[in-house]
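discrete fold record:
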Amino acid sequence: MLVVTTEGIAGHRIEKVLGQTFGVVVRSRGLGGNITASFRSLFGGEIKEYTEMIEDARKAAIDRMIQNAHAMGANAIVMMRFDSGEIGQTMSEIVAYGTAVIAEKE
């Protein structure tokens, strides 16, 4: 599955637009991770526990978006983007979304 952030795909033409596709993931650090992250935040710098959580959530959101596009019959996704937000103070929501298309090589 080709996934691009651009409107088109170099060397391909869009034969058919199938519609929006997305993948959603909501993650929360466990109590231990939150305590460790709280201590790290006292000293400044990167909080690796949260960085890893968000990286994993983005990968999972992309995988779900691709599964959704496959179910629609797509072989590519164009205009892929991420959106994120917080639910409460302990959960992060990550959404990967784009347009599912059928693309053919020129």
